[in-house]
Amino acid sequence: MTLTERRKPDTVDLRVVPVEQVLDRIEGALQVSLDRHAVVHKRCSVGAPTDRDTWVRIERRPLAKIGVQGWNGTECAARLVGVAQPVWLGCVVWQDADEPVMWRADETGLLPGAPVGAAVLSEDPRLPDEWWGALNASLDALASQGTLRIATPDTVTVTQPFVTKSIRSVFPGDFDTTVERWVPAHADLNWANMTAPTFGLFDWEDWGKAPLGLDSASLWASSLAVPGLADRVRRERRRDFDSRDGKLMTLFVCSKILGPYAHPEDPRLAPARDMAKRVIEELKRRC
Questions:
Q1: pTM to 2 decimals?
Q2: Are 99 and 151 found together in one domain?
């Protein structure tokens, strides 16, 4: 199979589809050489180090999933103040000649460390207090800034109807799901998008305004297979979790774990179910 063959634009897996021609084009446009022996393939993106000690991340996205705000999240995140992230250096963007998709390659500085782990951890990474302090500083700085962007986790725009539908699909009840505060969020906060031992936050493609507490709840959900780690996330981000919006975002992430695509052997099922029950009771008491 080649990239020019006709197929549904959202079914391509870049882990199995050849991308040599794409890499050639990027090298010419950015005037850089990619280390072809160190290319990292993911389903929707590819990354590689360069000969000038930088990193290039390449993403393929169907036109139908590029909203009115575009898909320049990494570029727009460069103006954020007080957030630990790789420096953004430049990009190249083009529309595919054969399919209704676009390609984008962003060049950034190298990460300050290795990713903490997979998106969902099964072991405690035993991060030092300094790391947690840097995480808190970055998340607090991010939430305090302004943007017109709307968060699009998994390329889905976060709106009030979407939040309500997601929660109600798993947790019907007589509690209010109206979000009170919308603040800038990374919107894909998990252990695969942060570095250690030096803290850094990367993959900013879908950041934007989201309900207060989305990032904290997402990180907690990624930690549920390690109870002590999940508890640490809740302690560190207590202000978010104690807020009404933070409780709604806890239900929002639990709905993803407990929804129709839940895996029966997912170790997060029981703790997510227990927490959801507790949060719903708290929300009802506030009504």
A1: 0.91
A2: no
